[in-house]
Design a protein that fits this description.
Layout (H helix, E strand, L loop, with lengths): L5 E5 L2 H4 L12 H6 L16 H14 L4 E5 L2 H4 L9 H16 L3 E7 L5 H5 L8 H16 L5 E6 L1 H11 L10 H24 L5 E6 L4 E2 L5 H24 L4 H9 L11 H7 L4 E6 L3 E4 L28 E2 L3 E3 L17 H14 L4 E6 L16 H19 L4 E7 L18 E3 L8 E3 L1 H12 L4
Parallel strand pairs: 1-2, 1-12, 2-3, 3-4, 4-5, 5-7, 6-8, 7-11, 11-12
Antiparallel strand pairs: 8-10, 9-10, 13-14
Helix pairs in contact: 3-5, 7-9, 8-9, 9-10, 9-12, 13-14
The protein binds 6-O-phosphono-beta-D-glucopyranose.
C-alpha cells in the first residue's frame, strides 16, 4: 500500500447509489423503511444522485479535484440479496467497475462493508439484535474479501457503531425506530462488536496485504468544568459512547467497568457469551477510522429518565430550529450546552478543537494505531446561482478549521494517515433528505440528468491538497 498521505472524500451506498432494485439487488432495511408509512416525508434514496449510473463522472471529478482516495460502501443486499445466501454476481460486477475506474486515476479505495443498510431479511430477524447477525455478516464479509482481495487496500467492517446503535434504539430516527430502548441499544452495540471481530477473523484467514479497520463516529467526551463530578461524567460519556466499541476493536477487550455499569443500569447481559471473549481478543483492527463532526459535551447526570434529546427538543431536526443534539443517560451523564459555541441548523456544535482533543486522547490511550479521518463534513442549506454554482464559504471555513486541528495533532505525533471530506457530491441525508447538503459537488435533483456542478469548496479543497503534498 502506498505510504503517501491520502486525501479524498466519502459516500455511502444507500445515500448515493440509487438503483435500489437493479441487477438483482435485494431490499435493505432503508428501502423497507423509506417505502413504508413510517417515512412521513415520502423522500427516499431510490434514485438519489444515481451514482450507480454516474460513477464514472463522479470518480473523474474526484481525480480532477486532486483527490487520491475514495471512501465508499458496498450495499450488503446487492451482494447477498436474500436469506438463502446466494451471491449476486451482478452486484460484484458493479463494484468491480467502480474499482476499475478508481484504478484508472490512481485513487485508493477505502471500502466499508456496512454503512447502516442491513439487508431487509436481516432486519426481519431482529436486525442488529438478531443473535445470528455476526455469523451472517461474517459470511457476507468473507465473500467480499475473497472476491476483491488485495484490490481493496483498506477495508472497513462497520460504519459508526455507536452512532448507528443510538439512532436505531435511542433516538429512534433510523429503522427499526425504537426510542430509548437501553436493552436493545446494548444488545445492538455488543452484536456490532462481534460482527467486527468475526469479519476480521475471516479477513485474516486469507492473509491479504490489505488492512482492515472500523469507522467510529463520536469524538472524546469533554466537559466545561474539571470538578470530580464533571470528570466522572466525562469518563461515563467515554465509556458509553467510545470505549465499548474502541476498546474491543483495538485492545481486544470490553472494559470491565463498562460491563459493571451496564449491569447496574438493569440491563440483562445474557447475550454476552463466554466463548466470544477469545474471538474479540484475537481479532482486532489494523487502523481506526475517526469521523469528525461535533463535540461530545457532557455534564453530571442530574435527574430524569434516559432520553435522547436535550430539553425535549428534536434531535437532528433542521429548518433552523437548532435544538441542541444530545441525550441524558440515567445514572451516567447528560449532554451539556455551551452558550459560546455556535450550532448548525441541525443542532450540532461547530467546534473544530474537538478533533484535536480526540486525536490526542486516542494516541494517549491506543498509541500509534494509524488513524484516517474518514468523514468530516458541514451540512448546510446550500444556495445555488442560476448556473448551479454554490459559493459555500461556510463549508470552506468549517473544513479548513477542522483541518488545522487535525494537522496540528499530526504534527504533534498522532499517526494520521489520511482525510476524507463528507461528502464527494450531494447525496441523501438519512433524516433530512435532500435539503441538507454536504457535497463538494452540487447535484441538481430537478435536472433529469442530475447535473453535477463543482462548488467553491471543491476548488478550495483541490488547492489545499496541492499545498500539502509534503505530508
Ligand atoms: C455520518 C454518517 O454520521 O453523518 C453519514 O456516516 C451521514 O452517513 C453523515 O450522512 C451526516 O449525517 P446527517 O444526519 O447530518 O445527514
Amino acid at each position: 500500500m502506498t505510504e503517501k498521505f491520502l486525501w479524498g472524500s466519502a459516500t455511502a451506498a444507500y445515500q448515493c447509489e440509487g438503483a435500489w432494485d437493479a441487477d438483482g439487488k435485494g431490499p435493505s432495511i432503508w428501502d423497507e423503511f423509506c417505502h413504508s408509512e413510517k417515512n412521513t416525508t415520502g423522500i427516499t434514496g431510490d434514485v438519489s444522485c444515481d451514482f450507480f449510473h454516474h460513477y464514472q463522472e463522479d470518480i473523474r471529478m474526484m481525480a480532477e479535484g486532486g483527490q487520491n482516495t475514495y471512501r465508499f460502501s458496498i450495499s450488503w443486499s446487492r451482494i447477498v440479496p436474500k436469506a438463502d445466501r446466494v451471491i449476486n454476481e451482478q452486484g460484484f460486477e458493479f463494484y468491480d467497475n467502480v474499482l476499475t475506474e478508481c484504478e484508472k486515476y490512481g485513487i485508493v479505495p477505502n471500502v466499508t462493508l456496512v454503512h447502516y443498510d442491513l439487508p431487509d431479511y436481516v432486519g426481519a430477524q431482529g436486525g442488529w439484535c438478531w443473535e445470528g447477525i455476526a455469523d451472517e455478516f461474517a459470511y457476507y464479509a468473507a465473500a467480499v474479501f475473497r472476491h476483491f482481495g488485495d484490490r481493496i487496500p483498506l477495508y472497513v467492517t462497520i460504519n459508526e457503531p455507536t452512532h448507528n446503535a443510538s439512532c436505531c434504539y435511542m433516538v429512534g430516527n433510523y429503522p427499526p425506530n425504537e426510542k430509548v430502548n437501553m436493552q436493545h441499544f446494548c444488545h445492538c452495540a455488543y452484536n456490532m462488536v462481534m460482527c467486527n471481530a468475526k469479519a476480521i477473523r475471516e479477513f485474516r484467514k486469507l492473509h491479504l496485504k490489505s488492512q482492515i479497520g472500523l469507522v467510529h463516529a463520536s469524538c472524546s467526551a469533554e466537559a466545561l468544568k474539571a470538578t470530580p463530578e464533571y470528570l466522572e461524567a466525562v469518563e461515563n460519556g467515554d465509556l458509553f459512547t467510545n470505549d465499548w466499541v474502541l476498546d474491543p476493536a483495538i485492545k481486544g477487550e470490553i472494559p470491565q467497568k463498562l460491563i459493571d455499569k451496564v449491569k447496574a443500569s438493569g440491563i440483562d447481559l445474557s447475550f454476552m457469551k463466554a466463548e466470544d471473549r477469545a474471538v474479540i481478543a484475537e481479532n482486532t483492527i489494523d487502523f481506526l477510522g475517526q469521523n469528525a463532526y461535533s463535540r461530545l459535551l457532557v455534564k453530571p447526570y442530574h435527574s430524569g429518565e434516559t432520553c435522547a434529546t436535550v430539553n425535549n427538543a428534536g434531535n437532528n431536526d433542521g429548518s433552523g430550529k437548532a435544538a441542541k443534539e444530545g441525550k441524558t443517560v440515567k445514572g451516567w451523564f447528560e449532554s451539556d450546552t455551551d452558550p459560546d459555541v455556535p450550532l448548525n441548523p441541525w443542532g450540532r456544535e461547530i467546534y473544530p478543537q474537538c478533533i484535536y482533543n480526540t486525536l490526542i486522547k486516542r494516541k494517549q490511550k491506543y498509541g500509534d494505531i494509524p488513524i484516517y479521518i474518514t468523514e468530516n463534513g458541514h451540512g448546510a442549506y446550500d444556495v445555488a446561482d442560476e448556473q448551479g454554482y454554490v459559493a459555500d464559504d461556510g463549508r470552506i471555513e468549517f473544513l479548513s478549521n477542522f483541518l488545522e486541528q487535525i494537522l496540528k495533532a499530526k504534527a504533534e505525533g498522532v499517526n494520521v494517515k489520511g482525510y476524507y471530506v463528507w461528502s464527494t457530491m450531494d447525496l441523501y441525508s438519512w433524516i433530512n433528505g435532500y435539503k441538507k447538503r454536504y457535497g463538494l459537488v452540487r447535484v441538481d435533483y430537478d435536472d433529469p440528468d442530475l447535473k453535477r456542478t463543482p462548488k467553491k469548496s471543491y476548488f478550495w479543497y483541490k488547492q489545499f491538497i496541492e499545498d500539502h503534498q509534503d505530508l
